[in-house]
Amino acid sequence: MHQRLLDIGFRKVGEWKLSASGITCTLDAEAESRNILYAFESEREILYIGKTVQPLKARMYGYQNPGPTQSTNIRNNANLKECLGAGGTVSILVLPDHGLLKYGGFHLNLAAALEDDIVSQLKPKWNKTGI
Q: How many angstroms separate the CA atoms of 2 and 89, rounded?
């Protein structure tokens, strides 16, 4: 699974760490990128696939500090804590959309176009449809 994402252009840009206050995300690149497809992976296993129209750092903040009604953020916050607490590592991979794909003059949102099919084929265990 991991290699299939690398083959289409995903690259590692950060990782999750466990701290005394919870989980923290470090991003080495693409922090301000929008319309981005991202993945959480551990030991070369893809755990979660998501997309965001927000800057990537804002989306990751939602997982760090989930609101009381944000079920996906709450679920992934718990998943991240469990994995990291067991001594695992969780990397953040991204496939940025730099607005190069167009159809009839319209921008194609690569993240929106790919997310459903990647989740359907790879069935990451943290995606609700992958459970």
A: 14
Instruction: Give residues with Cβ within 8 angstroms of 10, minimum separation 6.
Output: 37, 39, 93, 94, 95
- Read off the CATH number of the domain in which 46 is found: 3.40.1440.40
Rounded to the nearest 5 degrees, what angle is found at the Cα of 51, between the Cα atoms of 72 and 27? 90
d(C-alpha 128, C-alpha 23), whole Å: 21
Reported as a pLDDT band with limits 50, 70 and 90, residue 1 is: low
Q: Which pLDDT tens digit goes with each residue over 17-51?
A: 999 889 999 999 999 999 899 999 999 999 999 99
Query: How many domains in the chain?
Result: 1
DSSP state of 127: S
Q: In which domain, by residue range, is 116 found?
A: 2-130
3-state secondary structure at position 50: strand
Per residue in 54-80, pLDDT (tens digit) is 999 999 999 999 999 999 999 999 999
